[in-house]
Amino acid sequence: MDRQQTVITQTVELHFLNGPHEVSRFPGLGSQHRGPFFRYLGEGAPDVARLVDVMQDLPTSTSSPEEMCRGMRIVYGEDYKPQLAAKYVQDFANTSDAGPFDGLLGFSEGACVAANILLDQERTSPERPFKCAVFFNGIPPARAGNAGIYLADECGQVIKTPTLHVFGARDPGKFASLALGNLCTSDNSLVYDHGQGHEIPRAPAITKRIATLVREMVASIESNPTNSVNEGACKS
Q: How many CB atoms lie within 10 A of CB 47?
């Protein structure tokens, strides 16, 4: 993410946190990424290879993003505890000398964890310490155990915090990014399809566009710092 960091840091300061669980290389990941590789989700989380297989067997693209996400629920184990991953990130944010932090940025599984944090803070923290989030190839926030994920056709738009959703049309899991976007209040969310796959793009024009959208989101927060919180109907 070196190119993106260089451009985006003209607006924000980024701090990166590795997940606590070391894993093997994701299938299809480019050779420029040398590793080691880490993930936030531990025991009971989807196996990466199985996740790819399930994506390939999902319903056709004529299904709604939510219906396609329901086909993914089988990959979560009974002992899956998304709150542990969220706590890992939250503990870092609460204790790091680099804090306090204004927002979250997550890619794929990291975006799922970030979405869980936003969902939790909107239920429990009126101050909302995280004022925004950037989701790359995101996944909706997960429920505990094998109860699946939060979906807009069950819960409505439950994330009011300003968000930016970046994904690629060639990503086999793009429906998950769309489903996450549907959970976020449309007035406070920006969406950008860069046309590529399950990756953070490196092309200069795409990077500049992402940086512009980040700046737009930051400007909207500065102009309206007291966005109201959507109570929502979802339950854990």
A: 12
User: Does 194 participate in catalysis according to the annotation?
Assistant: no
Instruction: Please pick, among 31, 47, 171, 177, the residue that the annotation labels catalytic.
Output: 171
pTM of the model as a whole: 0.84
Evaluate the omega torsion of the peptide bond into residue 65 and state whether it is cis, within 30 degrees of 0: no
Length of the chain: 236
Residues 210 and 8: beta-carbon distance below 8 Å? yes
Which one is catalytic: 165, 189, 194, 198? 198
Token readout for 12 is 């924000």
Structural element, H or E, at residue 24: none
Tokens for 148?
Answer: 């699946």
pLDDT in tens, 70-81: 877 655 666 667
Burial class (CB in 10 A: 0-12, 13-18, 19+), 189: buried
pLDDT in tens, 50-108: 666 667 666 655 689 998 888 776 556 666 677 888 899 999 999 999 888 999 999 98
